[in-house]
Design goal:
about 230 residues, globular
Amino acid sequence: MELYQKFQVVQFVVILATCLVGLRLLREGKSPEKTYILPFCIIDLVVTGVIVINHLIGRYPNYFQIIIIIFSWCEIFFISQYISSVIGRKKYTLRIVAICFLSPICSYILLHDYTLFPMLITGIYLSYNCYLYLEFLITHKNNVNVSTTPHYWIILGTIVCYTASIPYWISEILFKLSNIEELNYELSQILFTIFVILNICLHLIFIKAFICKYQQHKLLLGQFQSQ
């Protein structure tokens, strides 16, 4: 089993754990985490499972690019909608739709690859949304205890994964534009493995956020019952 395949299996296990924790801890009541982040994690689990199975059996079907494009749409929609719901910002659905449909078209015209631009744009767009959240956090710093606040951990995970992965996608695009057919195999493995590790970190931080949300719910329930 190749190095990146081993980390992809670990990634699948971590995402599965995130989904199970979320289903267990967020089953009561409604919250932005339950509405947006948990469905995103479940979709990520399915997509990762399909990719891991095909990599392990050595199959690389043409529909891989379609899966990746659709998943990039899910990333932009669910996470940006989550951030908008937290900071009370207007949800720009039409803007998201335009980004989702134009980015793969531009990617294919310039790079003959449908996925590279969507993945880069996803990282940039979500990083911009994280900036808006941080601006909101600074404005409301006296009212937010970040160590126990679920949305703080969600945004932290998003920054770790999506902002940190922007250089990876830029390098992929530059190599594509340079007409280099393929990176040095070992370097390619290392870069992709780092990208997978970032996604593992994302879901581990999401678990922390789900735990914080559960603790908040229990605290509010206890206060309500004591009244």
